[in-house]
Each structure stands twice: as structure tokens, then as C-alpha cells.
Amino acid sequence: MNDITDNDKLMAALAWVIPIVGIVILVAEGMKDRPFQRYHAVNSLAFNVAFFVILTIISAVTFGFGGCLFVLWFISIFWAIKAYQGEYVNVPVISDFVKKQGWV
């Protein structure tokens, strides 16, 4: 396994907080080959897509209840901190799905 650099940790954490960074990681030549960055980029993008779908459904049913947004944002911040500490985050359901698809 490759060594995890400080840059890997920073980019992984930013991918959780700013989803566009996850896309940048997956298209940039030097970054997409780094397993730690790729793992967190793919997981954060999958989480954010699922988050958007769930939020849209909840908003439609409850006519705009924003409490869910606040809670999920804090979870995302928690995972960003874990990534910055050099840990691989296991997001329930999403991490297993991403691994089964062969994306990481």
C-alpha cells in the first residue's frame, strides 16, 4: 500500500466538504492514481449524490424541512476530519456499493 501523504489527507478531507474537489481528484492525472484520494473522492461523490436524492424526496414530502441538511452536513464534516487524520472512512451502504462496483 502506498504511503499516505499530507497532501492526500488534505485532498481527501476537502472532497468531503467541497464535492467539486472529488471530481477534480478523479480527473487530475497526479491525483486519480493515489488510492487514498481516489477512495475518499468516490465515496464523497456517492454520498453527495445519495444525499441530494434523499434531500429532494424529504423536501417534497415535508415541503422543505431543512433539519436533515444540517445533520448530514455535520456527518460530512466528521468524515472529512477522519480523512484528514489518514483514516479510510466506511460510509454505511455507500462504501460497500462503491467497492462492489469496482470504483475503488
Topology (elements, then pairings):
Elements: H1 6-17, H2 19-27, H3 29-32, H4 35-62, H5 67-84, H6 94-101
Judged by helices, strands and strand pairing, the structural class is mainly alpha
> Gap between N and C termini, in Å?
14 Å
Can you count the beta strands?
0
Average pLDDT over all residues:
87
Which spans have pLDDT < 50 for at least 5 consecutive residues?
Answer: none
Question: What brief labels describe this structure?
Answer:
104 residues, mainly alpha, 6 helices, 76% helix, elongated
How would you describe this protein?
- The protein is mainly alpha-helical.
- 76% of the residues lie in helices and 0% in strands.
- It is elongated and about 45 Å long.
- The relative contact order is 0.17.
Structure in a nutshell:
This protein is mostly helical and 104 residues long. 76% of the residues lie in helices and 0% in strands. The protein starts with 5 loop residues before the first helix and ends with a helix.
